[in-house]
Structures are given as structure tokens and as C-alpha cells.
Amino acid sequence: MSKRAVNILVPLISIILGLVIGAIVMAVSGFNPIDGYVALWNGIFMDSYTMGETIRQITPYIFSGLAVAFAFRTGLFNIGVEGQLIMGWLAAAWVGQAFELPKIIHLPLALLAAAAAGALWAFIPGFLKAKLQVHEVIVTIMLNYTAIHVANALIGVISGGGERTDKVHESASLRAHYLEAMTDYSRLHWGILVALLAVVFMWFLLERTTLGYELKAVGFNKNASEYAGMNVKKNIILAMVISGAFAGLGGAMEALGTFENISKLHAATGIGFDGIAVALLGANQPFGVLLGAILFGALKNGGLNMPSEAGIPTEIVSIVIALIIFFIASGYIIRVALERFGKKRKEEK
Amino acid sequence: MKKRKFGLALASIFAAGSILAACGGGEETEKKESSEDTFSVAMITDTGGVDDKSFNQSTWEGIQEFGKENGLEKGDGGFDYLQSSAESEYVTNLNNLIRRDFDLIFAVGFALHNAVAEVADQQPEAQIAIIDEVVPDKENVASIMFRANEASYLAGVAAAQESKSGKIGFIGGMTGEIIGGFEAGYVAGAKAANPDIEIDIEYAESFTDAAKGQQIAKRMYDSGADIIFHAAGNAGNGLFTEAKERKQKDPDANVWVIGVDRDQYDEGKVDDSTNVVLTSVLKRVDVAAKEVANQAKEGNFPGGELITYGLADEGVGLADPRGAVSEETVAAVEDARQKIIDGEITVPEQPGE
């Protein structure tokens, strides 16, 4: 079988397998799989409202995916995207509601604050890794919990003991009446443009700058990089900080777009953890992350419609969506199977 | 290579979807027509889910009862619920139900405040009732509140009367006004019944972390408290676990739990004859939901109003203790209840008042 045919067949088969197994799960639990998939489809594309919501859902996934991918590319495993995102969310929400400035200053300031807060939260594990060789996985995991509780306490302080902060001022909001009107009051906001810029930025930084080259080199081999005269410690910290800044901006999407404030969190948001899957689906390439985020966001938003339209319980929906993602991610298995199959046929000839 | 792979992956999802969509288009239009003559009700849960053994479940029970009385069926044009598994889904779910033409939509829990406020502005035709939170100045939103502090006062009286060690406990969910009401009432009631009572108060800072709840319960029981009241949602399940474990090890152990929101008697079962639940502080969300649904059905939707359910209208109360408390305590609780209804006792609304 030609290489080209395999490349086309692999994703096709993975998707079909995912859909078929998902359909079996639905059928076994007593629901109509066709209704289920129609509902999933409608939840993504039915009209301008659902499409607006789908794009809204995709936006923070792009950032959390980029954050994880960036760290991976530089040899670090940042599981703390969740926490960095929450800190960014909080910072943007605070800047958005505390100051009154013209939009041209206020909005960038709020975004910067979010990036800085995320970066600061990621600086801690970066610093500990560089100076004391503390493994970043442990520190970043624990800082997720710390972030939730710190954020909850600060929300209490900012709002004078309330459950949530005030809405951000119009001047800091990413939302626009124009977008709302166009999409029948979906929560679509301009953040998607910021996210696309971030994708290009990460590509440029990693592939076209000396700094990016150094960061990647340190990720590949610390000792060799040091021998080549690079400052390894500085690069580790910098890699974490940039990763954290992406995560923080993801939080800003929630603070300035989706919610326009922050409420006390009962549990992790999940966006940061899903970011790990998004990054791996996208093979840690910026444009791959974009596609991974689109897939994740679309399935997530479409899945919301399944209980409503097809009466399938949320739990089954989660299983079906997880199966689809699982099969797409496991394209490698199908590739191996296809190659074996191809070889056998050759031998028979 | 990877990029192309995902491009294809997405393209084929979309393609598969459009084929499927083409197959199933016909049915929907029929479903929607039936919703015009009957009154339909739906609810969206907060992240607790519809079987949270608390608010969401109670609301759903009220709606189901309303549906049964009016001969409605689950689904479009009848009654239905949507679960939210993340905060970002509140608005989506609300809009979803509005688009399905439900006449009245219940939003359960204070976490939905912003979602309700936002959607209410955009959809002036929708009628939304929010439970346990006030969304002021919206003509199409009714706010339903419960004076939990009054029922908690009664729980405090019962706990102080029944305590043998002279020390009782309170486990809160997250610090804030809502749980503050429980705490304030409980403390006031206990102090009124026994001025020397010692009350141990701690917050789990979570409504979901049962392990944290159990840890706090363990510490409180170890330090001599014998009755613990929780207002901590699922985190409170840890309290039940701890109390039941103690009771299993030692059937004579003097450990009791006061449940919250609904009668949690079933949660406290150790075996057929033993139960650790003393009583439960009830918020009759089901009663309220049904009542508001009935009002709306008759065209009297209390939009823009704040409706408070207290002891007087039986919107809150104590669950049947099933013989777990003495006659004296029952009498004391009844006495306090009457006094609160008559206005002789004013129950503080927040701690420290």
C-alpha cells in the first residue's frame, strides 16, 4: 500500500472506528446512536448560535494546548496549566473591574496582567527546577490546588466576601455586540483572534528565533546545550514562564470573554488538564494544537446538545466523546495494522 | 504529516456528521408542535448533577410531581432537566432549554446567578426561576430563597438538648452568605437551648471534597463532639462515612449527624436497626418548585419578585427524627418553631449578628 494511501486511510479509519464504537456504547445502553450523532452534529453546527458557542469553547483550549505543547517542546512537563490558567483568569478579572481606562489601554493591560500572573505561577516550578532540581511535575501538580484556594480567597477579598467578582468594564471586555447579534446571543468573543495570534507567535518563536532554538536545544539535551555555551538554568525558567503566560492568557479568555468575571471555584476547570490531550493530539506543533483544540472544543460543545436533543445521559456522552478522541489519538495502532496488512499481501503475490 | 492527518480527521468527522444529519432531520418539527397547549417545565442543575441527594434532586422531584399532576411526559413540551458539568455550560444549557420552548425554567443554585442574569436580558420572553439566589430587577426572573437559618436554629436547639458531651460541631461547605445562614441559626439555637454549649465550627472550603469532610468530622468526634451538623453538600458525605464507621466499630459510640437540605436518613443507615442521623434541616425545594410552577401555569409567574420560604409556610423545617430524640427535645423544638413563626425569636441571618 502506498504511503499516501496509508496517510489518508489512518485518520479516516480512526474516526470511523471511534464513531462505530461510540455507536455501540449508545446502542448497548439503550439509546439511538443516529439520534445521538445528529444531536452531536447539531450541537456543533446547527446554526450561528451553536457555531459561536463552539468557537468560544475552542478558544481557551488553544491556549491550554499551546502552554502544554510549549513546555513539552522545551523538555518540560507542565501539568500546572490548570493553576496558571486560574491565576490568569483572576488577574484579568481583577484588572478588568478595578480600573477604568480607555479600551485601547485597558484590554491589552488586562491581557498582559493575565499573562504575567500565569507566568509568575509557572516561574515557581521553573525556578525550583533550575536551581534545586525539584521535578516540575510535582510542583506544578501541587500548585494547581494552591491556585484554586488562593484564587477563592482573593475573590472573597476583591468582592468583599461575595461569591464572585463584579463584571469587568466594557472597556476590558473581549465581547462585542456585533458578534452577539451575528450569532444570536452566543458568547462568542474576539479572544479567538488573540488565540490565533498566539499560535503564530509560538511557531515563530520556536522555529524562527535564536531564543526558540536555544529553548528546544535545552529540551533535547541539557549537557550538550551547556557545553555549547547556553545558559541552561535561564532557559528552563524562561520556558516555564512562557508556557505559563500562554496558560494565563487562556484564563483571560474566560475572564474577559466567556464569563466576564470569576466565581469561586469548587473544583478545577478541566481546561488545563484537557490541554495536555490537546497538545499531544497536535503533536506539540502550534498548528497541530489548533486542530486538536478545534476537535476538543467542537466535541465538547456538541456533546452538550446530546442529553438535550437525544436524551442521552451526560455520562454516556462523555464515554462516546472520549472514545472518539481515543481512536484519533491511537492512529499509530491503525498505521501499524495497515502496514502489516500491506506486507502480507505483497508476500502472497 | 501530522497536520494533514488532523485536517483529514476533522474533515471526515464533518462529512460523517452531515450524512447523519441528513438522515434524522424529519422528526423534530413534529415534536415541537405539541408544546403549545400544555405548560412545560424544565430545570438545569449546577455542577452537582441531578442525583446530588440535595437541591438539584429535590427540584427535579418537585418538577416530576408537577408533571405527573398535569399529565405531562418527560421531553419536549413536558418536563425535562439538563445537567451541567462545568461552569461554562450554564448559559449554553439555559439557552438550549429556551430554544426548546419550555415555558418555565428552573436554575438551581447560586452558582447560576450570572448565567441567569445574562440570558434573562437576552431572552425577555423566557420565564426563569432561580433557586437559593437573588437575581434582582429582572421582570422575567423569580428568585426563590429559603430561610435556612430558621430551620438551622431548630437543629441547634435539638443538638444542644441531645448532646451528652456538651460539645457539638458544624461543618460548612464554602465560606459565604449562604452557608453563613446555616451556621448563624445553628449557633443561635444551640446557645439558646444551652448557654454553656461548646460549638466547634470548621469549613471544608469545598462542596465536593468528601475526604476533607471526613477529616474534619474525625477531628471533631475525636475532640469530644457528639453531634455534628453539616451544610457542605457532597463534602458532608465524609461526615456520614466517619460517623457510620465509628458506629460499626462500637455500637455504643455516641455519634450523631444532622443532615441538610433533604431528609438524609437513608444516608445514615449503619444496619437495619441503627442509624446515625438525628434529624435533617430541610429546604423544601420540591414544594417551592411545584408551587412556582403552578403559579406560572395559571399565568401568575412571580417575575421580578423575591419569594422567601421560611418556617411559617413550611418551606423549611426539620425532618422526622424517627425516635432518635427525646420527647423533651421534640417539645423544645416545637416551642422554638412556634416562637419563630410568631416573631418572638428573631434568628440571626449571618454569624456574628
From TrEMBL, chain A:
GO molecular-function term, one example from the UniProt record: transmembrane transporter activity
Keywords associated with the record: Cell membrane, Membrane, Transmembrane, Transmembrane helix
Membrane topology according to the record: Multi-pass membrane protein
Domain of life: Bacteria
Record-annotated membrane-spanning stretches: 12-34, 54-72, 105-124, 188-206, 236-259, 271-296, 316-338
Any Pfam family the entry gives: BPD_transp_2
Any one of the GO CC terms: plasma membrane
InterPro entries according to UniProt: ABC_transp_permease (IPR001851)
Compartment(s) of residence: Cell membrane
Protein name from the UniProt record: ABC transporter permease
Organism per entry: Ureibacillus yapensis
TrEMBL record, chain B:
Subcellular location: Cell membrane
Keywords of this entry: Cell membrane, Lipoprotein, Membrane, Signal
Pfam families associated with the record: Bmp (PF02608)
All copies of domain ABC transporter substrate-binding protein PnrA-like, residue ranges: 40-350
GO CC aspect terms: plasma membrane
Family annotation (PANTHER family): ABC TRANSPORTER GUANOSINE-BINDING PROTEIN NUPN, TRANSCRIPTIONAL ACTIVATOR PROTEIN MED
Family recorded in the similarity comment: Belongs to the BMP lipoprotein family.
The name this protein goes by in its record: BMP family ABC transporter substrate-binding protein
Organism (species): Ureibacillus yapensis
